[in-house]
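Lecture notes, unit on protein representations.

Consider one protein chain, 352 amino acids long.
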Amino acid sequence: MTEQNYTDAEFEELLKNYDYSFQKGDLVKGIVCSYDSTGVIVDIGAKTAAYCPIKEAVVDKAVSVEETLKKNNEYEFLIIKEEDEDGRFTLSYKKVALAYSWRELEELKANDATVEGVIVSVVKGGVLVDVKGVRGFVPSSHLKLKSSDNAVGETLELKILTMDIQQGNFILSNRKSYSDDKEDNKKDLFNSFEIGQIVTGEVVRITDFGAFVDIGGIDALLPLSQISWRWVDNPSDILKVGENIKVEIIVIDQDKQRISLSLKSLEKDPWVEAKDKIKDGDKIEGTITRIKHFGAFVEVFPGVEALLPNNELIEYQNSENTILKVGDKINTTILKFNPDDRRISLSIKNDN
């Protein structure tokens, strides 16, 4: 097999064709572009518009897709499936919204705070309510009025009695009033944090897209992409509930009262280290970390991945009469190393 030597222009074009800046588990912001019969078209800044199916877009079935995700508005989404053959990512708005809602409800319960819920159904033994997109139950014994005297659509002031996120059980009471003092204390604590601050927190919950970390009374989000420089398929492979970790505050959203964290920022940037150890033309044995329709990701230095285009992957498999899989070692050649843009063009090593 003949090695390919790319000019700078050809290398940049190759990277455009194999853009891999987004990955499954990333939280991304996207603008709603349009709708079709099965979902929502979203611009997340990738080469192709992403797609959010209806079942992953609607939190409350009583609210339409168009009302939930309004056209031209920006929302936060979770990438739940990497690019298909058309280069389109699959997104979920529902998973993000419900994860934040459960997290917020846990905080409200811990703070003994009240929450408003809307009655969605009167059932035997009580009423079903919608609280921040989560369906809960208020027993008749915890209603100020009899169940039959409560109407669908009515708003109730509630206190959370019990909640089990794993089982989806959520029980509330409408019989007492509570102070907002603890909520005010939470706001004061939120304002005491700043970007770049290093804090110690406890992992309190693990989700598909990262983990929530208690940093002294505030549950902040540690996104999947900020856990490690290396590819992480599942946060639970790295983190455990109850574990104490040091993290850096990287985002503070005052409007939504949310904080985002980074664990990997406290480690040495592998791309900076690789800058002095990798150069164009180097022959390196790498490890396959992911295989996609457009090629394979190969770790050529701890924490540094390069893309092997699909045509070379197929040619290698045909010539060697083998099927490569994640974890396999493979000899490669660095065609072009651009550490500033965190890009590497890769080819199969040729010993002939």
